[in-house]
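Technical annex, item 7. During the second reporting period the consortium partners agreed on a shared format for inverse folding records so that results from different sites could be compared directly. Each record opens with the tokenized structure and is followed by the designed sequence. A conforming record, contributed by the partner at site C, is shown below for reference.
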């Protein structure tokens, strides 16, 4: 493991969590959007993470475990639509109401989004703390060299 590998791993976590926070913010912003370019209400999005491993084949990943090599951080592999059903709200005065007076609302739950936002924020903070700790260790190692 190289000298700056821990910083690279934490930096990948910072990038991934930043994208996750952006997607969550977009979900919150569209909580009442009943019309989209695709037609119909806004559909909640979620981020899918995957380990950013050195090798791509099973054998390479397995050998990295046996050699006790750490992973290479995290990467975003997809931003997928949530297949959960839309909420139906009775509002016959709404321009997007059907013949029965029901409006299909986005499948975004504010409470879920806020919990996800707190989780992403805590993960971001943990990666910042790890980078600061690595910087501190590097600084102390350089001070030892001066003596």
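Designed sequence (site C submission):
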């Amino acid at each position: 493991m190289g000298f700056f590998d821990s910083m690279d791993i934490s930096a990948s976590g910072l990038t991934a969590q930043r994208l996750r926070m952006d997607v969550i913010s977009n979900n919150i912003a569209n909580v009442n959007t009943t019309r989209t370019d695709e037609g119909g209400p806004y559909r909640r999005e979620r981020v899918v993470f995957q380990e950013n491993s050195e090798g791509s084949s099973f054998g390479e990943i397995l050998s990295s475990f046996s050699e006790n090599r750490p992973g290479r951080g995290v990467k975003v592999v997809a931003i997928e639509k949530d297949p959960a059903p839309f909420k139906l709200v009775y509002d016959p005065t709404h321009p997007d109401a059907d013949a029965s007076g029901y409006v299909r609302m986005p499948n975004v739950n504010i409470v879920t989004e806020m919990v996800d936002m707190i989780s992403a924020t805590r993960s971001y903070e943990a990666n910042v703390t790890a980078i600061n700790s690595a910087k501190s260790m590097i600084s102390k190692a350089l001070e030892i060299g001066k003596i």
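Residues 5-31+45-81+108-146 form one domain. The beta strands are 45-51, 74-81, 87-90, 102-105. All partners now use this format for quarterly exchanges.
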